[in-house]
Amino acid sequence: MKKEDASGIIVYLLILAIAVVFGITVLREHSASSNMDTFVYILFILGAILTGILLNSILFEVGHILGAKVGRYEIVSVNILGLLWYKEEGKTKFKFSGYDGLTGETVILPKKEAKKEPNPTPYLMFGTLFYLVELIIIIVLFTLYNTKDNMLMYNIVYFLLVVAVIGGMVLIYNILPFKLDAMTDGYRMRMTTNSANKKAFNELLRVQYAINQGEENVEVATFSEITNFTAELNLNKVYTLLDKKEFEEAEKLIDIILAGKSTISEKVYTRARAQKIYINIFTKPIEEAKEFYDKEVPMDERRRISNDISMVSIRTYLLMSGILDGSRSECVIAINNVRKCFNSTPKQRQKTEANLFNEALAKVDELHPTWKLGEYKVVFEEKPEKKKKEKKK
Known about the structure:
Blueprint: H1 3-33, H2 38-70, E1 73-80, E2 83-88, E3 91-96, E4 104-110, H3 121-145, H4 151-175, H5 185-191, H6 195-212, H7 228-243, H8 247-259, H9 266-283, H10 286-296, H11 299-307, H12 311-324, H13 328-336, H14 338-343, H15 347-367
Antiparallel strand pairs: 1-2, 1-4, 2-3
């Protein structure tokens, strides 16, 4: 199990525990004094929960939008519970879409004309600040009207209290300073505490946007100070270099990342290590590549690469198993994970990953033709660009 998956489960259990405690204490007491029958009270609570989810989802994204503008960013898209608004050809459009977050996602881009380096702190903080304002207002109303003298207001403030608790659950997930199953503001806030990370954060936004727009040969800045963010940027550059078969330059960049092992996450280190092994197998004689593998890659690193479900680790695991270890069964394990992993790979990276994997597969197939693995190539289907509608004269 991945570290972020385990962390996510712990956070979800914490949120569930809060919900249970709130239900059997506060809501049980209120249900007994609300003058509602059981069915009506269930509808009352469900309405409060749905309102809390919707209202707080909107509130957090409004905070992100205003924070982005204060921080000198432009808004690329806003997604609230799968409802996506985005700009295309100067027009605001709408569609249903997935998102990286618990309740929504606001995608931003550093303003080109900004005189100062854009600052992500307001973007990451304003959602939390907006919720705190909501919480203060609800606490004040609850203090004033938590009395049975006016049953309507009495029930309304409990309705609002449920809304606030739902918002608090979202906040707990979003504010914790470590990576969960989605990118959280707390994690990004922790990662952008120094100037190098802020620059890397802004560069990563620019690069991802350019690639998503279909730009080719996107120039990626590299960083000598290695953190998770700067390592991610350097790995983006590695992909560009591998695509051009500039293995020597790619390896130099990977070595910079690996030298910063103590400052990056296990996942980032593992994938950088996998890239290094991949390059070694492709650029050196098998005997030399195996010598490096035996001396420089300990068993725990090999295990992490074999367990990491990412295209970089899978294609390296395939080469390790087929070229260095001579194990067909391990190659089959790697191949069995490819399709699912490839489909979850960012669209802008799929063409490169398909080529890199197929080249690894061909190398194994060439050495072991009787294994008949060549038929398992990844097929990348490049969708034709949509023709732009001509404006009527």
